Amino acid sequence: MSGSVIPTSETSTFPEPAALPPAVSKAISALYSDSGAPRYAISPDQFLQFVTAVVTKYAAAAPQSEQLLLLDKLHLEELILARACSLGNDAAWDTFLNCFRASLYESAYRIAGNDATGRELADELYADLYGIPNPNGRRISKLDYYMGRGSLEGWLRTVLAQHHIDRCRTYSRTVSLEEQIESGASFPSPADPVTNLPDPRLTSALDKTFSELSPDDRFLLASYYLDQRTLADLARVLRVHESTVSRRLDRITTQLHKRVLKRLRTSGLSGHQCDELLDELDVRDLSLDLNTKLRQDSASTAFYNKDGSGL
Amino acid sequence: MKRTSGKQIQSTTVRAHLAQSQPADFRPGSPHPDADLLTAFAEDTLLDRERADVLSHLAACPDCRAVVHTAAPLQPDRESELVPELLHNRHPQLEPLPQPLAAHAATPATAPEPRPTQSPFRRWLPGVALAASLLVMSATTILFYRALHVNPANHTQTAATTPAAQLPIAPQTAASKPSAGADKKSVPAAARTAKHKEARTPAPSALPTEEARVGAAAPPPPAPPAGISSSVSLGDLSPTAQNVPPPEPAQLQAELRANRDTYQSAMARAKVAPRTTASSSTQSVQVQAGDALTRSLETTHPVAGFIAPPTARPHFRITGNGQLERSGQPNIWVPVSVSPGTHFRVVSISGNDVWAGGDHLRLFHSTDNGVNWSEVHLPAAADRTRAIVHIHIDAPQHLTVEDDSGATWTTSDAGATWQ
Q1: Is the reported ipTM for this assembly greater than 0.90?
Q2: Do B71 and A302 touch (CB under 8 A)?
Q3: Are A300 and B33 a contacting pair at CB < 8 A?
């Protein structure tokens, strides 16, 4: 890509970095030469600003040790590359194209499922990465949102996946009811609220048991039973073997069963009654919203809102 | 909606999932982790605190779960192979990559090491499985042959019901002495003959009938010297002989009595022999004669096990109900009838001396490996309600006895006097 056609981003979208402990600032400065920043004509002050913004965003209130740990886990070279691209550095764009163009298109093809959609998806992302001028004439590059927490290649895949899901959602809203019926979609009948109500003790036991699950267990259950993901999918995401996922799922479900049984017995039911209750239980009879049970609100400052605020 | 593989299936699954879950799960205004956090979660580079938060959100948010699963790389091996391959095809006129990033574009020539497609454990698994199979087969074979050659119970019925006259025994032994009654006469002659043999030389012809009966069950003896017949093996038994019906109970009783008489006469001579001659050959004859009888009585008629003949190195034990038992062969234990009704607690062995103690301070002593027993009385002042729980033999004639109350008695003359 010729350097003459690359516009430069005049302003940065980073939040103003808060003051960090001197030890952290010193550690950031020590990373300057190894980060490749001099290659892209990024000054030490700019480098300090970039990295400080990342540490401030994710660990502003964290202790110093955690800030240093975060600093150690940052992908600094790729962060500086992204910042240099955002600043319009030709060498940085050459490096980006050499290193990530092929993998970006390959990921787009894989995520979209066909070449045409994949290419369209990748081109859209390229446009965002290149930067679109805002009403003030300033170009905002998507690469400014990359913070170096993960690899740049993985971040590009994640952004592609978000774009793809947004496109699918937009597409699904435009599909008429007739088209959905023609494509074989089925719609559930409204539930009868007066028939086969489960024992309230069972509902209470399930409610309490699900609320005790750890985040890992909730994620596994939700992915496997709600999203219908396969063991291979979960193994890829969690970076473990499929058999490990299978064992963990078995362990979780076994523990759930035991805890529910224990709670039922505590509520006064005999073992025989508990077995009968669980044997006759039809999950469809439960007015239990697993999504709600598996949901746990978190108030992390690192999360952003749907409307884009929080960055 | 289980997915298998393929791009089209994945895309369809995402659409279907979104179409189903969007209305119920969409929560306007709820915070979502950004792409950086999701990427770091997938790459396992999050801090612990952040990972817990992201996991909690993912458990509740199907949208973010869909992003994570959709953005997940291919199989790790394939993904790592794919990127260098694509990067290798870059334009040749481009500038060289920076050193850290150049690692992405490592060509196959510069990175020739193939990635292992299997873990080291998986690579070794077939070898380990093969070795385990060989080990199991070897152990099974050894156990089978041990059971075949050592455990007489496997062949008791066949050997016991086979008339000695039908066994292909050497003419010197069974052919001329098929009946149990003849055994009584054969023992002295055999003992006299074996007395002149070399030490540890087996005397298979010492008790021809019993030797023939237990030959199949006994361990194969070493090759005998010329002129001495060997015992009978199981393979020597003809099908006709194996099909012979078992003898009548009366016949068994008579045979048992004959065996017992034979044993007692043999022991009467053998017991004197070591003390008079003290030759190893005589001791060998004694042991082998006793072993032959023991095997015969134990294997042919288990009810005859009350006789406790000596063996080369007998072992003793006390069962849970206080019964003293003796073993001359592996896994064969015979009750020792020392004093009926006595509940034994402890047994101690030193050489040929065997001491056994039990309830009511009853103490028994055998100087011939448990063949003959005599009761040794502790001092009259001892509390007879106690039980002997410990016997420590310091020397052949010197031992210490302790009861369950902690009282001890010591003797230096094999129990004649106590202190």
Answers
A1: no
A2: no
A3: yes
Does B14 contact A168 at a Cβ distance shorter than 8 Å? yes
Burial class (CB in 10 A: 0-12, 13-18, 19+), B348: middle
Predicted confidence pLDDT, tens digits, chain A (311 residues): 333 333 344 444 455 555 788 888 889 988 888 888 888 989 998 899 899 999 988 888 888 888 898 888 899 999 999 999 988 888 999 999 988 988 889 889 988 888 888 898 899 888 888 887 777 777 788 898 999 999 999 999 999 999 898 888 787 777 777 777 777 766 666 655 555 556 777 777 877 887 788 878 888 888 888 788 889 888 888 888 989 999 998 898 888 888 888 888 888 888 777 777 776 665 544 445 555 555 544 444 444 444 444 43
| Interface A:B, Cβ pairs < 8 A | 245
Minimal CA–CA distance to A227: which of B81, B114, B69, B361? B69
Chain B residue nearest residue A233, CA to CA? B69
Choose the closest CB to A305 out of B29, B35, B65.
B29
Say which residue the tokens 């490996």 belong to. Answer: B369
Q: Which residue has the tokens 């054969």?
A: B186
Find residue B357's DSSP bridge partners. Answer: B346, B363
- CB B105 to CB A303 under 8 A? no
Angle, CA B356 vertex, CA B351 and CA B362 arms, to 5°: 145
Q: Is B62 close to A227, i.e. CB distance below 8 A? A: yes
Sign of the dihedral through C-alpha A89, A91, A92, A98: positive
Give the residue from A300, A307, A309 with the most B CB atoms within 10 Å of its CB, the best one to mutate: A300
Q: Does the predicted TM-score (pTM) go above 0.80?
A: no
Which class for A195: exposed (0-12), middle (13-18), buried (19 or more C-beta within 10 A)? exposed
Residue B47: its chain A contacts at CB < 8 A?
Answer: 59, 66, 69-70, 73
With CB atoms and an 8 Å threshold, state whether A295 touches B29: no
Provide CB contacts within 8 A for A116, sequence distance 6+: none
Q: How far apart are CA B214 and CA B153, in angstroms?
A: 10
The whole-angstrom separation of Cα B64 and Cα A295 is: 13
Report d(CA B272, CA B401) in Å as an integer. 30
The CB-side HSE value for B254 (13 A sphere, CA atoms) comes to 9
Confirm if A142 and A128 have CB atoms less than 8 A apart.
yes
Residue of B5, B30, B45 to mutate when probing chain A, most A C-beta within 10 A = B45
Nearest-angstrom CA–CA distance, B22 and B65: 13
